[in-house]
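Q: Convert this sequence to structure tokens.
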Amino acid sequence: MKFDVVVVGGGGTGVAAAIGARSAGASVVLLEKNATLGGTTARSIGSISATQTADQKRVGIVDTPAEHFEDMGKFSQHHADRPDNGELARILCDNVPESVRLLEEWGAVFLGPMDEPPHRKPRMHQIMPNSAAYIFHAEKHARKIGVEILTNARARKLLTANGEVSGVEMQRDGNAEAIKAIEATKGVILASGDYAADPGFKAQFVSEAVAATEAVNPTNTGDGHRMALDLGARIINPDMYGGGMRFVRPATPAWQSRLPPSAWLMRLCNAVMRHAPQSLVRHFIMSFMTTVMVPERKMFQQGAILINARGERFADENQRMVFELALQPEGVGYILLDAATAKKFNQWPNYVSTAPGVAFAYLSDYERTRPDLFHRGATLDEVARLLNMDVGVLMQTIAAYNRGEGLPGRAIGRDERPPVGDGPYVVLGPVKNYINYTDGGLAVNSQLQVLGKNDVPIPRLYAAGATGQGGLLLKGHGNHIGWGFTSGRLAGQYAAALAPRAEQVS
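A:
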């Protein structure tokens, strides 16, 4: 098999790369190891930040990529000691408006723009009706223009000839005998996501606790990183990741996540969200919010505590990420609030979770939409029975916390936080810690070429999205998806512009 460009990975980045290369005249094959396309893009909240969009212009917002670039730096101020690839950030801010325009041209519909401080202006756009719409419309367009898409096709290694990347070794359907070489006459683009689901990389770069933490996308196993490392590439910021504590998803997905991304439905959803009374909008998104949003840390600052399935406190709740949770029995925990604290989190300004600029969820919302994880007990005895905990252990935990004691050898007292008071108690859970993404990306240049020894480009090898993040710090909602579609599209164009190789795969 021979193509001009081979794209590895079928998430938003990979499909954008395939479209970019095909639109530039190249023959393209996209390899996806799973049965369907989607990747992390289809599992995301679905927001994308961009300036000069049709939605910004509709409401009279004057905004520029330069302002977007300035505001991006505000998100990563607490990482001032880290390398941040300003060149790639400029590329993102300058080119993401065109990415949004193309997505809309392919059929996507956005709600926005919405505020997200420290952005100075509203520039966050939410895909409608859910993040699967990205892949639905991008895949449809890719097939329409002639991209060949192979699913259940795992890239095993990069092939080389005369010092250049010449193709990919691919395995179909997990069959050890179904291994084929695909020649790439112009280049290979790695768009296979991050390594959030690879325990080896996570243990090597971060810690065993993080290695034990589940990934939102269990198929992000760092395939592209690994293949490039074999050719002398390097990873920048390998220990950086995003994630944290989330509520365990319900057995049945939220109905909003199952809505089909048809054009008429997206337009209807968009109209409802723009013009319907706020109460109706809030009802529309609430089950989604109580499923995928992160519990606010403010609950712990106000007096909630985190316990494991045995009723034991095991970590300082004020830590940004309590990855010790992954090492607890069944990897789960529970958030316990006394009566006074529970009352606070049923009204503004104390909310349990929020979708920035859209709505806030309170305890009453969780009681209504997530009865599977909302528990109320008049006494600690009743709480223990509801959750199958040893009441003696739970009572000892509460008593020790109220005395300001930590665990043996660990200073995790309650500091200035109030003690746990009287019931009735509310318990939210189970909760787990999840890795949303890893920020360690292959070093790339401004043309998205993967850099090898001495930062010399590896000929005919490109990386985009999380695989080619290259030291770019992407904090805040909407920048990861923006980078994925933008870098993928540009990498496809760059690869397609190369003169074809004369040599054959060896």
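Residues 40 and 217 are 6 Å apart (CA to CA).
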